[in-house]
Please model this.
Amino acid sequence: MHAPSRSRRFAPAPRPPRALADALRGRRSLALLALALALLGVATLALLEQGGGPPQTAFARAPGGQYAVLARPAGEAATAVTVVGADRDAVPLEIATVPHLSGHRLRGAVSPDGRRVALLVPDAAFSGRAVAALLTLDLETGELRRLAELLDPLQEARWTPDSRAVLVTRYARTETGAPAVAVARVTLGGGETVLETHLGAVMVAPLGFDAAGRLLAVRLDATGSTLTRAGEPLRWLGPYVTRDWALSPDATRLAFVETNTARGVRYLPRVVPIEAAAGDGVSAAASSSSGRQALGAAWSPSGETPRFGREPSAPSGGVSAQAATGFDVPLGYSRDGSALAVLHWSGAGFDEPGAPRFAIVSGAGRRPLDGFTRFFGWSAR
Model:
């Protein structure tokens, strides 16, 4: 008989040194991390393909064309900033809803590059008087930035040509108590610099810059209206209050409306050159092609002649020729000059203006814009 066989025993495998085991565990961890990152990358790409990434408004994906930027009430204490294409069938695109004091309205201006709108938002009151904050709204992302506070809500903001800053005015008093108006430059980062101060002024309206980069403005004070350059008087526009100022595209001429009170109240259209004639000095050089009244002034991009909203008579004047009744007050041409935003009044004249209604007038006809309360300017895509 053979002796019973014994079960074969195997010696356990030698354990790897601790350093090698740690290395192996490290490699496995790195492999898992790499896999997780790869999956995260795939998920990120998928989200981007589905419209993720930085926020965008509907305007950022809108087709090319000319777009009017307007305000539409969103209740008593908010306003919806909306863009509307010049085409008759374009659908309004809401960008953002901006809260403000109940019963008040926004004022604003679109930047020269068409990307942002500067908004004066009445959002506080002191001693019963409303004050406004300066906000910028990015039309493509919907981002709102608060840049300045405690401003007069009835002023018009004005952009610098590079779209990097906004001009606003602040009321102040000198040490002797005399009134003064300061023109300040507010950058997109919120930095504020006073450019010039006008002593004794009741109001100062920045207009834009000349070819040399000097600020042009209209100053209203006890003497009437004066055109200034870099804070210094350039031309006296007359003894009356002026309004609806519009600087020509090449900054060589100024169109405006004079509130003439010599025989009652009349609104007279005027056009003056920026530079005074030889020997003229600072003088009243305003001129009018007719004695008819007008409100509003706008220059086409070609800058040939300004468009005024003349009071209707026979024949119909201004830009109201395309309207069956009433009259138009021009607000601004689109960037390519193909369309004009107007405020149409249904009445027969300035004494009985009727009801207002915004509209876009172009070669394709007239597009009414119902429900809007303010025009901020034009953008293009």
About this structure: Confidence is low (pLDDT under 50) at residues 1-24, 29-50, 281-285, 314-322. Helices lie at 18-49. The longest helix spans residues 18-49.
